[in-house]
UniProtKB/TrEMBL annotation:
Membership in a protein family: Belongs to the AHA1 family.
Domain Activator of Hsp90 ATPase homologue 1/2-like C-terminal: 13-152
Database matches in InterPro entries: ASHA1/2-like_C, START-like_dom_sf
Identification of the protein by name: ATPase
SUPFAM superfamilies noted in UniProt: Bet v1-like (SSF55961)
Pfam families from the UniProt entry: AHSA1
Amino acid sequence: MSRTDRADRVIGAPPAAVYRALLERESLEVWLPPDGMRGTIERWDPRPGGGFRMVLTYLAPSGSPGKTSDATDVVDVAFADLVPAERVVQRAVFEADDPSYAGTMTMTWHLEEVVDGTRVTVTAEDVPPGIDRAAHEAGIASSLAHLAAHVERTG
């Protein structure tokens, strides 16, 4: 059965600034990792059909639920659609031996201009069943909070 997780947040910046942060390697490494993780991008090709490979490392690996290893989640992301200041669609595949993490998850970052800035709505479709819903939604919300802090600070 297909599962969809969502989160949204208003960010005090225009859609163009938020869109830039979605497509800048250094920015992604700063804001995308959720609380308790850090991220390193190993491959970067920011265009439709391109993508990136990110290694997410748990800061406190003891007892961490890593998908690739005890301390890491490795994800290959393809850019399926890029619409400036409007939408970024990513297809993410986790490296994992556990089949409950298999499959391609589609992450859509929709940007909507609002009075206070930009409403960013993240929709994750076809979420692998091994990913806990509450933890995933908390992780997306954490990434959105980091994105807001980053964009609002750097403009």
